[in-house]
What does this fold into?
Amino acid sequence: MLHLAQIQKKGYLGKAGLRLLAAQKSEHIWTKLPEEETVLSTEASGFSDGLLVLVDISNSNQILDIREAKDWVLELVQRYLTYGVTPSHLQQEIERAEQWRQSLTLESQELARRQIELEARREQIQVLEEELKSEKKQLETRMAELRSQSQD
It folds into this structure.
């Protein structure tokens, strides 16, 4: 798992410490670690004290890769901060998206309600059509009876 860490040179038997600050959960999601955890590493001793690094750590806490975080941080600045993407801007966008989602949900519910009403009206019209056909047949039958009686 990829971590953002800070180099700590305290000289633990020739090993430097990596103070883990954040962990990557998915490609664009990181979580700040609630408790500082330090991992000892001989690989970290080649870096300056206080330097931010990206560290790939296996499940068994072995360092798989370690590199300076400068390019990664600059990419974040370029990708997000040069366009005015601030935490408040992101919060506003989240709120707008939520309002939009709620609006779409209400519209969908309204359309579903209208569809149910239309189906009910269609059924009423079909019932009325059947009643009219029945009444028409009865009237035609009655007219035929009256004609036959008047001819007699």
In short: Strands lie at 2-12, 15-26, 29-41, 52-57, 63-68. Residues 87-151 form the longest helix (65 residues). The helical segments are 70-81, 87-151.
